[in-house]
Amino acid sequence: MDGAREALDMVAEETLDPLDWADVQALSHRVVDDAINYLRDVRDRPVWREMPAEVRSVFEAPLPRVPSPMADVYGEVSRTVMSYPMGNVHPRFWAWYMGAGNFAGALGDFLAAIQGSNLGGGNHAAALMDRQVVNWCKQMLGFPASASGTLVSGGSMANIIGLTVARNAKAGVDVREHGVAAIEKPLRFYGSDQLHSCHRKAMEALGLGNRALCRIPTDASLCIDVPALRAAIAQDRAAGFEPACIIGSAGTVNTGAIDDLQALAALASEEGMWFHVDGCIGALIAIAPENAHLVAGIEKADSVALDPHKWLHAPFEVGCALVRDAAAHRRTFAVTPEYLESTPRGLASGEWLNDYGLQTTRGFRALKVWMALKQHGLDKFGRLIDQNIAQAGHLARLIEAEPLLELATAPTINIVCFRYQPGLAGEPLKALNTEIMLRLQEEGIAALSDTTVHGQHWLRVAIANHRTRRGDLDLLVRETLRLGWEIAAEGPFGKAAIFDKPDNESRSA
Hints:
By secondary structure, the protein is an alpha/beta fold. It has two domains: about 105-375, Type I PLP-dependent aspartate aminotransferase-like (Major domain) (Aspartate Aminotransferase, domain 2, 3-Layer(aba) Sandwich), CATH 3.40.640; about 380-505, Aspartate Aminotransferase, domain 1, CATH 3.90.1150. Helices cover about 40% and strands about 10% of the residues.
């Protein structure tokens, strides 16, 4: 026995720490220098480009069994991952509604990883900062200090948190103990027909089913029709359902339309219903000096979902769910197993943050938000939101001035839907505009998406980027006209080919 113990003692114990910290320090300096250059020169690169086959093959390599020098590992990341990004940090990325990141936030992510704290809770600095950032989010939206909240992965999870609390608060039974089958009357949740798809996923995950989500028609501006909502609630009550929650949109994903949040708050109060606001697109307009009035009423919500990784430009991922009734929030999720019991002093004497959501293990998301807010101040982020909204107005005016371009609807905030329209309709028009969108991406000019508005196909530009300049939008219009003409000249698009080639040289850069 003693011999075996002596043999075991002679075996070298291992660690993931380097043997030579000087080599790691030198490489780290190179990585930081490269990162600064990467962001500094982002405008000089294509927004997006297709990966060649030899790069794709890198991601099919087998599991590594033996070590490689860290410099070689970084070199491979630089050649592959860093060289072929999604593109959302680029000033002409407008495909989906994403923030563009910021350097302070990137440093925050790095430092959070180095510090390594688990934000399930406890008595330590990272947990206190998590609470502080949630409190700051409450202040941004005008929520009371007594409200609660939690940082989560993003908007979809933030909405699920709010809607879960709504379900439990309005179920009339202890859903956690007895399940949804014990609910006497089937619950109904209501939102516009422009709701984000995460709400359907929420209904399914909550055991209520897709049919529990009633999509209310929208008006000409694509906002929820409040009289139609009132009528649907009355009809459901008469049919034996239990109207539980109204979901207001503070910016729809298709066009940025903002529901009448004041009217929805009043109706929810009148009907004894929960009022939830999906603010992942536009809740943070509340901090914008010129446009804050657009989301008036959001402060009256029972719960709100918002995304700091959009208009606060935090690196992915970080969302936030706010709940007015802190006790209802905690009752929905809190569990205290014997291994997480609080102590009067020491590490376990702090608050258990996992009592406010689904995750026990939680990453240190707060630091990247905290550092950027401390560096720039909230007022600058508010001005950047106003800047994006003004840029959308500029793009809309450019589109309206071009005979071959058509605007779907006047932008409410920072989302512009338009199309190249040379006198086509139906599938040919959709095919032409889809090809324009794909070539804009493939040529590295700009990243757009497409969507359906009022039953028709449109290109969609979501300007949520602090690097975008008006000249980028001028370029988008010029290149759309050029590509529209070229594609129409190539294919069977009928009368589209009779138009003269656009005079791009006469347009300002």
